[in-house]
Amino acid sequence: MASWFLSECGLRPLPIIRFYSKPRPSIPSNTNNNGLKVRTLPGSSPFKVSTWCRRRSFVGSLNVSAPLEVVETINGVEEEEDNGGFDPAAPPPFNLADIRAAIPKHCWVKDPWRSMSYVLRDVVVVFGLAAVAAYFNNWLVWPLYWVAQGTMFWALFVLGHDCGHGSFSNNTALNSVAGHLLHSSILVPYHGWRISHRTHHQNHGHVDNDESWHPLSEKIYKSLDNATRLLRFTLPFPMLAYPIYLWSRSPGKSGSHFDPGSDLFGPNERTDIITSTACWAAMVGLLVYLSSAMGPIQLLKLYGIPYWIFVMWLDLVTYLHHHGHDEKLPWYRGKEWSYLRGGLTTLDRDYGWLNNIHHDIGTHVIHHLFPQIPHYHLIEATEAAKPVLGKYYWEPQKSGPFPFYLLGILVRSLKKDHYVSDTGDVVFYQTDPQLYGANKSD
């Protein structure tokens, strides 16, 4: 039952505020004028706890960056949202070498024949699906084909992604040839994407330096026009962003994956970019030829719509590997960031029957920490690493045969995860309550 106190403003309930003798190591506490330190919770816009009335205050005015932690009483039972005292932003009690040592040695072995067998499997399925759809040419068949073929395009992308990481084989030439064929076939510039994706892995979890689905700072977020902000966080538009990203990157960053002079690349990488852009252009030329040979409508049905399904898969998967957990996960700046702490903010996802089809890309945490592990060893490596990771590993929700549950997670995240504070070395996503036209009083 709440306590009450008599003030000059009348009878008021006494708020329950947690005081700590010292702040937790990774989330700075705010100190009021009386020297009291008040713990704050992540995930909300900055606000001010004002005085209880104009003439007298209870504990003075507190300027905090998140709401005060309070104890909620539900059915007479006090509930505290502190995740059992675990702080995901605290430096872990293990290091990268500890995780590496727990993973069996054979998980690091790359088998080029096995990798090529997956390529052969996927290519046969892609051409088989196209042949069946073209043979029946029926509007009962086409929608099924689009979903299936778009998913297979995504599977091809994952294999090309392995080439880019060098987990496909130890042969650089084989990785480059296979990567160009796989990625160019689905209009991805292999080297351009490979290099920017390397930047993503090297800076995962870093607010300013990350490359893929990194948070917008509050300043950049508020500099966007209303239409851009709304489109960025309203389905289906975020799931169609990948081609735009290839041409112009994310808000606040400049450069193109097709331009050898882009600041994405170093001077010694310009030849690689010219090569991958030329391969991409060759694929565009092939599509133009096929359009004239079979007609643009037939090409749209066989290739165009599956391509956009693939784009949606790519954006969905990459977004949800870094967003949407029920617990707020940290992003870092400055001295608080490290390769290990950034990698531990990534999330595994379960895709049901599709796990094997898209080469277990859902086992994302170990992949981010050790991208040289082949995809066919990721599950075993993850299981071996779990005892070391402990609570820093977020067990994924189990999926049914098809991962429809991910759509709900995606929608909730887009409604909440809008920007992070411009300041602070450990920050959490905050919500813009005005984004969808809510009243300021809500």
Q: Descriptors for this entry?
A:
7% strand, two-stranded antiparallel sheet, 15 helices, mainly alpha, 43% helix, 442 residues, 10 strands
Please tell me about this protein's structure.
The protein has 442 residues and is mainly α. Helices cover 43% and strands 7% of the residues. It is built from 15 helices and 10 strands. A two-stranded antiparallel ribbon has the order 1-2. Strand 1 (3-7) and strand 2 (10-14) form a beta hairpin. The protein is globular and about 60 Å long. The two termini are 27 Å apart.
What's the topology here?
Layout: E1 3-7, E2 10-14, E3 30-31, E4 37-38, E5 47-49, E6 62-64, E7 72-74, E8 77-79, H1 96-102, H2 112-136, H3 142-165, H4 172-184, H5 190-202, H6 218-223, H7 226-232, H8 242-248, H9 270-294, H10 296-320, E9 331-332, H11 339-343, H12 354-357, H13 364-369, H14 378-389, H15 405-416, E10 426-427
Antiparallel strand pairs: 1-2, 3-4, 5-6, 7-8, 9-10
Helix pairs in contact: 1-14, 2-3, 3-4, 3-5, 3-10, 4-9, 9-10
